[in-house]
Amino acid sequence: MKPSHIIKTLNERIAAFRADTEDRGETFYQGASRINLAAFPPKEHWDDWIALEPIKGTGKRREKHYMLVPTTCFNCQSSCGLLAYVDRETMEVRKFEGNPEHAASRGRNCAKGPATLNQITDPDRILYPMQRVGERGEGRWKRISWDEALDQLATRIRAAIVEDRKEEVMYHVGREGEDGFTESIFQAWGMDSINTHTNICSAAGRSGHQYWMGYDRPSNDFANAEVILLTSAHLESGHYFNPHAQRIIEAKQRGARIIVVDVRMSNSTTHADHWVSPYPGSEAAIFLSIARHLIETQTYNRDFVARWWNWREFMAAQYPDDADTFEAFEARLAETYAGYTFEYAAAEARIDVRQLRMVAETVAGAGTKLCTQNWRSAAAGNLGGWQVPRTLFLLNALMGAVATEGGLAPNAWNKFVPKNPMDTEHPDWWNDLIFPGEFPLSVNEMSFLLPHFLKQGRGKLDTYFTRVYNPVWTNPGGFDWVEVLSDESKVGLHAALTPTWNETAHFADLVLPMGHASERHDLVSMETHDGRWISFRQPVARAARVRLGETINDTRETNPGEVWEENEFWFDLTWRIDPDGALGIRQHVASKTDPDRPMTQDEYYAWIFDNSVPGLPEAAQAEGLSPLAYMRRYGNFQVGLGSAMHYEDEITGEALGEAHTDEHGRVFTTAAVDYGDGPTPEADPEGRLPVGVGVDGTVRRGFPTPSGRLEFYSATLAAWGWPEYALPGYIKSHIHADNLAADQIPLVPTFRLPTQIHTRGANSKWLDELAHNNPVWMNPADGQRLAVADGDLIRVHADLGYFVGQAWITHGIRPGVIACSHHMGRWQFTPGGNREQRTMETDIARAGDDWTLTPVADHSPMAPQDGKDAARVWWTAVGVHQNLTFGVHPDPISGQHCWHQGVRVTKAESGDQPGQVHVDRSKSTDVFNEWMGRTRPAATVSPDGNRRPRWMLRPMKPRADAYKLPEGSA
Ligand code: SF4
Hints:
It is a single chain. With 970 residues, this protein is an alpha/beta fold. The chain has 29 helices and 34 strands. A seven-stranded mixed β-sheet has the order 6-5-17-16-15-7-8, covered by helices on one side. Strands 25-29-26-28-27-33 form a six-stranded mixed β-barrel. Helix 22 (616-622) crosses helix 23. The protein is globular, with a radius of gyration of 28 Å. The model is unreliable at 20-28 and 33-37 (pLDDT under 50).
């Protein structure tokens, strides 16, 4: 029987079962999930849910009473719903399951959601504020009070503000897990000081989308797609893993075709109809050959292209003598991509040309139900990787599959960020340490270059926060981070806000314990599917006790030890920075009813839910609840059901105002324009705001690009120094065969394991049991060539040195490429630290610029007294920390770190141990200088005297005058 028939039969059986059960009058779960899983406790019973529990050694069971309290998972960006089972006897959380009221996750989780229990019961978690004793990095600590920690921080930050040294305060975040709160805090302080991890993650993926549509991310309607084209292992470990995976599988069950472009045979490829395993970096060539096929066979959506592409602008810029007709453009379009034949792309990708043709024909049959996705993957791996999502989106733009059912929409149309009561404004100055002049087109902060900038003397940090961020381990060149974090002249005070110990916290002055998913408040929304929702993260023990009638004023009252939550921490710190309100700061966090104290969390969220979430007050009222009580009870609210083609919205009447149309049809107005959640496009020289674009004689909303249309041609790239990349194209990667020596091969170091969390996985024992090693994937042909057998130790030599890994010989990777997951190789200095989990105890030796990390621990199981489950730890491997050997590779346009490496592989030498790393740090500066040499700084290319194009997205976008390049820099 064909697999599709098996699936059909299974679906028929499920349908028959459902019909049969409904006939018997049984009811199914009718919450937001709508997936009829009878296993969900009905919400009417969430105050007292009774489950049977075995009584040890008796063979009998007893009733356990639980209060079910929703919260939001914090273990990846998907923000799925969790339902905490709070034991009504002890008020302890016994387990986490899915929240059926959550519109995106619909009651389901991946392994990482329930593993939140490991994190909150981790015997080695940080329970109290700690201050270093002795030298930074020495590993000696003393417990201090929160007051002592807050006063130190407030004194320093206040001084930096008063002395106009705001640039010396920086907040560096890995997993933000919320929308807008922390930005508002730093805006309240007048700071342009938020640094993120995005340029080691999704910046190139964002960049490619932004040039097309002004929005930097797609929102996929996988559930309704006919053809799903995924770059890399998105199905199993993508950015919105669980919400995306369940919808992709639903589409597959309906008969949708799935194409996976992935160098490895991942779990995603096993669900694919077509698995394309290309030479890494060739993905854009593949997508362009598919585009050429659509153009050549005229299977693209001519009407959509004619109406929504900025083809007239392209023709005017590049072919001003051609006729001003769509047909003339079509001829140029065909000519532009004529060279991307299947043969050319197949040769670049080293794949079978017949497979490429089949894939192209599958895409051609998708119509407007083509759903494509590239989050990090190839975009994050390669020089010019930002052209991968740009060429991928070209396929959607050709098919007209933009904000269609089964297509993809701009993320902002499916994400909802409500206003909060802090009422802050964007900063009025520019932080060059975060957005330096060499990268005028970077979408996000140049965070991974910070140690190099500090070493160059571009600035120093007085107060540096890291928050759920572990750059020593996560970023390339971790020893550069160790050097600057150890140097008090470069970093005056480092406060690590973290639930768990990590490599970076070891080099902090203050380690401040923050809560996990069930121990904190946050509000978050993600574009997981065609619908809009908000999800509430809350401290579940606190919420449970409030349900029982207690009054709780501070989350520390219900968290373990003195673990706090960041919202209350930031409010308290803000108050201490401006205790009398003279700086105009504390007013932003003051209670609306009692301005002499900070807002409580109830006040903050009640304001949002009462005032900023359409439909929530009515839904709450229907259940006899306040909006806050509704969110505390259900955890999620669906704000809207799917986006429409908003670009087609007509603009008329008052909204249009006194309109002025430019030569390419962009319509500007003197009327006020509400851009909602989306980016703010640039005003014209007269200060009129873009309100729409003329299409077929009607003014329509369009896109927030300079032209108002989808930008096939980017006048921005042309004007800002990169005219050769004004169109979607193919840039040969730094690991293209042309750029490697004969004995080098590409290392793909970016893939995720679906059961691991970036920097907090080592504190989840269930997850570590599932995945605890990162062997180097190697094809048997390469094994034979290099005389490496399965399980052999090998040295992998990258930019800065080598790491010792274990070879895994497998047909699951194409020949000529090796790959190693980025999840493993966690290390620590503390003997016996992390008892139930596995991180390697290490010795770090330094001689000048030579650094060697050597595992020293015996990884045998520990005694039971070291932790409840310590003796059950049967695995000994912990993997290798490969990122230490990587230099920084900033893409000159997107700013993304290009992760792939050209490496040499040799057999391990006598005395080598798995996990060992050797680095020559001096090479790090050489690699930094080499890549900086590729940039075209704003001072030399800016066409308007600004630091960067003002229409482009920028977090905490400063006011217009801050964009001006300093006098004399041009
Ligand atoms: S996909 Fe998994 S880790 Fe991510 S939010 Fe959902 S349950 Fe948590």
